[in-house]
Design goal:
The structure is a single chain. The protein has 524 residues and is of the alpha/beta class. The protein folds into 3 domains: 3-101, no CATH class; 108-124 and 135-394, Rossmann fold (3-Layer(aba) Sandwich), CATH 3.40.50; 412-516. Helix content is 38%, strand content 23%. An 8-stranded mixed sheet has the order 7-6-5-8-9-11-10-12, sandwiched between helices. Strands 17-13-18 form a 3-stranded antiparallel sheet. β5 (162-165), α9 (171-177) and β6 form a beta-alpha-beta unit.
């Protein structure tokens, strides 16, 4: 895309105030929410009397997909003009008039450096609501839920060097550029064209876009942070159907996710972090979380004694093979009842059956490359520290900051001995809420749960001992003192109480419910 024409387009978008705030103000909140769901009639009614306003024209053109006359387009794009819009391939001609050929969406994303939002325009291919026909095989996605999930979980603050694998439209690379220099790779030439155009459109610099598969474009390089939302969809290979590049890497099963996990540690600096989204399979008789844990163990082994990995796997959803097949058959534009849909469903289910896959997990994988202190001459490296959990709750505000802080503390606590955990003073998060369920007339609750909105909303069942201990974790008493007092009060064995609370505290740290109230030295 011609950089000079992109600059003219930016001037027109700025002049029309084509941003989410102005769009909401013009349409009204309820009408705009309907538009975002693909219900366009209310928006068309709201814009019917605003035919000469640039903002209204841009909404109709790029957000509703309406065909318009040359005159209307010229009003909305006075600098770029019709000829420039056609040259940029923003628009295409049709019997009804000029129509959007690609999506132009204003987006707002949390600023990773400070409170507030960054506002960008993102170019991508047309989505299902606007596209007139099936998606291209080299379709470039816009800013979807998965992208926002990845950005939401990312560590905040400045980063010395970042890498994005599979940049697509480039919005994650733009977000990383707010923290420092970025390398962004993709196997799709067309995706890189969109990514470069979006960087130019939003006047973002400091991104080195490179063409290539996974880590090939960064051979021999290492980074402080790697983010990736790769084409991880598990797709049957025993089919002649052409694949969509944005979702299908052309590999068998969940092999792409395994490759990202196995290769990324070699491209991480000391204390560098990988955060990627992934799907993983649960073969018959096994758990997908254990499968990902094995990937991390193998990757750790490959590093030798010079480094150690730590991992945090969060499974956000676990679905059946049937639901998975239906989701991705629909994603391609096929609908139940169509021959194509039935053929795709059959191919997916046959593939899962042949490979004995019973379910699929959807979530994120966070890795940290740690240095190994001590005798580096040893050929045996310590086993990796890996924590797994299922957490389907909603993300809280500043979830990236909360999750990163939790990961840092959990890694530190993992190096404490049980004696050090008991000697420490612990502080309950202000967001922890206790729920007790009673049978009417009975004094003791039959269930106690602890809930917190820190990072990801979570609930955990607690027995009376753990619930009571959390209730007095205000930094005044050590865990050992709390255990002794509760053992006496509840008439239970002191050592058993201490052991139970030590294990409980370690788990609650991972859930973001407890923090350290004082400095505790870790084990070398």
């Amino acid at each position: 895309m011609d950089p000079q024409l992109i600059d003219l387009f930016r001037d027109d978008l700025t002049g029309a105030e084509f941003d989410l705030h102005s769009i909401r103000a013009l349409l009204g909140a309820e009408t705009n929410e309907a538009r975002e769901r693909g219900v366009f009639a209310p928006a068309r009614r709201a814009l019917a009397k605003r035919a000469e306003e640039p903002l209204a024209i841009l909404i109709r053109l790029f957000l509703l997909g309406d065909p318009l006359e040359d005159r209307a387009v010229s009003i909305a794009l006075p600098h770029l003009g019709v000829a420039g819009a056609l040259a940029l391939e923003l628009l295409e001609t049709s019997p009804e008039g000029l129509r959007a050929a690609i999506s132009v969406n204003p987006v707002e994303i949390a600023d990773p450096r400070r409170a507030g939002l960054v506002k960008w325009w993102i170019l991508s291919d047309l989505d299902d609501a606007l596209r007139r026909g099936p998606a291209r095989l080299d379709h470039v996605m816009g800013v979807g839920g998965a992208t926002r999930t990845l950005i939401a979980q990312a560590p905040p603050g400045d980063v010395g060097s970042s890498l994005e694998i599979g940049t697509g439209c480039g919005v994650v690379a733009l977000h990383l550029s707010l923290r420092g220099p970025v390398v962004a790779t993709d196997i799709s030439k067309r995706a890189l064209e969109f990514a470069r155009a979006n960087a130019r459109l939003n006047e973002v610099v400091g991104i080195d876009f490179r063409l290539g598969d996974l880590f090939e474009p960064v051979t021999g390089e290492a980074f402080d942070l790697i983010l990736s939302n790769p084409p991880f969809v598990v797709t049957p290979r025993d089919t002649e159907e052409e694949r969509y590049e944005y979702r299908d890497a052309g590999l068998v099963g969940d092999e792409l996710a395994e490759l990202v996990v196995s290769r990324s540690p070699h491209h991480l600096n000391e204390n560098g972090t990988l955060l990627c989204l992934a799907n993983w399979e649960s073969p018959w008789g096994s758990d997908g979380l254990n499968r990902v844990t094995e990937w991390i163990a193998d990757a750790d082994c490959a590093l030798g004694a010079d480094a150690q990995l730590a991992g945090w796997i969060i499974e956000r959803d676990r679905i059946s093979t049937l639901r998975y097949a239906e989701t991705w058959a629909r994603d391609g534009g096929a609908r139940p009842g169509d021959l194509e849909f039935e053929q795709m469903m059959t191919a997916w289910l046959d593939d899962f059956s042949k490979r004995r896959v019973t379910a699929l997990g959807l979530g994120s994988i966070r890795l940290r490359r740690l240095s190994v202190r001590g005798d580096r001459s040893s050929s045996v490296a310590p086993a990796p520290l890996v924590h797994t959990e299922r957490a389907a709750g909603a993300f809280s505000e500043a979830s990236g900051r909360h999750l990163s802080a939790t990961f840092e503390l959990a890694l530190r606590v993992a190096r404490l001995t049980d004696a050090q955990v008991r000697a420490a003073r612990w502080v309950r998060s202000s967001e922890v809420v206790e729920h007790r369920q009673h049978v009417p007339g009975e004094e003791a609750p039959y269930a106690i749960t602890l809930e917190a909105q820190t990072g990801i909303s979570r609930r955990v069942t607690a027995d009376p001992l753990l619930a009571a201990a959390v209730g007095v974790c205000d930094g005044e008493l050590t865990l050992g003192q709390i255990a002794d007092a509760l053992a006496t009060l509840l008439e239970v064995d002191r050592e058993a109480a201490a052991e139970a609370l030590t294990a409980g505290v370690r788990e609650l740290v991972w859930l973001g419910m407890l923090g350290l109230g004082e400095e505790v030295s870790t084990v070398d």
